[in-house]
C-alpha cells in the first residue's frame, strides 16, 4: 500500500488519519496541554487558557473521522518533568472526553504525563514504535529500527511553520506539513537500521498553535531532531489547507 494511502492529512486541520492495520487512527502532534501556565512562567506572557477549545477541537476531529484510536506524536503535555495541577486537569478532562484508546509516542515533555496517566494511555519508548505499517515517534531521539522498517514514519517535535510574505511587505506565519522520502544515509552511524522500509517521512504541524515552531523557509533556522535535515534531503512543504508550496529548501 502506498504511503499516501496510509496517512492522509485532515483538510484544514493539524491532524491526519492513518491506517493502523486493524484500526483507523487520528494522529496529532505537540498538543502541549497546560501551555498557558508554562508561557506565564517561562516568558511572562499572560494568556487565557484555551484548554476547552483544544479539547473540543480534538474531539470534533475524532467524531468527524470516526477514528478508533487517538495517537499523539509526543509532547501531550507542556511542562518538562512532573506535571503541574493545571496540566493534569486538562489532560484528565481530555481523556475523559475522547472516548477511544490513546497511544502516546513519548516526547521530551512527556515523562510526567506518562507517570501520571500511564494507567490510562499506551506509552511507547522514546525511540518510537510500529502500529501496523506506520512508524510513530516524537522525533527528539533517533528512531528504533522497527520504526525505520515501516512504510511511513510520522513524527512531531519540529512544529514546522512557513513565513509567507505578500507583495506589499507584510508577512504571516502558518503551520505546515513536511513530507518526503527518508534518507537511509542519515542513520548509518547512529542506528542499526536492520530491515529498511524505504519509508516516507511525515513531519506533523503542532496541534497547539501557541507552541511556536521551526520556520523551515527562513535562513538561520535549525532543526531540533538529530536526524533532520539530513534525513529529509528532499521533501515538500504543505499548508494545512493542502496547498503545496514546493520543495521545502526552496520555499
Automatic annotation (TrEMBL):
InterPro entries attached to this UniProt entry: Calcineurin-like_PHP (IPR004843), Metallo-depent_PP-like (IPR029052), Pesterase_MJ0037-like (IPR024173)
UniProt-listed Pfam families: Metallophos
CDD domains hit by this protein: MPP_PF1019
Molecular function in Gene Ontology: hydrolase activity
Domain Calcineurin-like phosphoesterase: 29-140
UniProt name for this protein: Metallophosphoesterase
Organism: Halorarum halophilum
Taxonomic path: Archaea, Methanobacteriati, Methanobacteriota, Stenosarchaea group, Halobacteria
Amino acid at each position: 500500500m502506498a504511503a499516501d494511502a496510509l496517512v492522509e492529512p485532515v483538510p484544514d486541520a493539524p491532524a491526519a488519519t492513518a491506517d493502523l492495520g486493524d484500526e483507523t487512527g487520528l494522529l496529532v502532534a505537540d498538543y502541549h496541554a497546560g501551555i498557558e501556565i508554562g508561557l506565564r512562567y517561562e516568558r511572562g506572557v499572560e494568556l487565557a487558557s484555551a484548554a476547552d477549545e483544544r479539547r473540543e477541537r480534538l474531539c470534533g476531529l475524532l467524531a468527524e473521522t470516526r477514528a478508533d484510536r487517538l495517537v499523539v506524536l509526543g509532547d501531550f503535555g507542556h511542562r518538562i518533568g512532573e506535571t503541574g495541577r493545571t496540566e493534569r486537569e486538562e489532560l484528565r478532562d481530555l481523556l475523559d472526553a475522547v472516548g477511544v484508546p490513546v497511544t502516546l509516542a513519548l516526547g521530551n515533555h512527556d515523562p510526567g504525563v506518562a507517570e501520571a496517566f500511564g494507567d490510562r494511555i499506551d506509552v511507547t519508548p522514546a525511540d518510537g514504535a510500529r502500529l501496523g505499517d506506520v512508524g510513530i515517534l516524537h522525533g527528539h531521539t533517533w528512531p528504533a529500527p522497527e520504526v525505520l522498517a515501516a512504510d511511513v514514519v510520522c513524527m512531531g517535535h519540529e512544529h514546522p511553520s512557513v513565513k509567507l510574505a505578500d507583495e506589499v511587505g507584510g508577512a504571516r506565519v502558518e503551520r505546515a506539513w513536511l513530507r518526503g522520502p527518508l534518507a537511509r544515509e542519515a542513520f548509518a552511524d547512529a542506528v542499526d537500521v536492520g530491515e529498511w522500509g524505504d519509508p516516507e517521512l511525515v513531519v506533523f504541524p503542532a496541534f497547539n498553535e501557541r507552541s511556536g515552531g521551526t520556520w523551515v523557509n527562513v535562513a538561520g533556522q535549525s532543526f531540533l531532531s538529530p536526524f533532520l535535515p539530513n534525513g529529509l534531503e528532499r521533501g515538500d512543504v504543505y499548508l494545512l489547507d493542502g496547498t503545496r508550496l514546493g520543495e521545502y529548501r526552496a520555499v
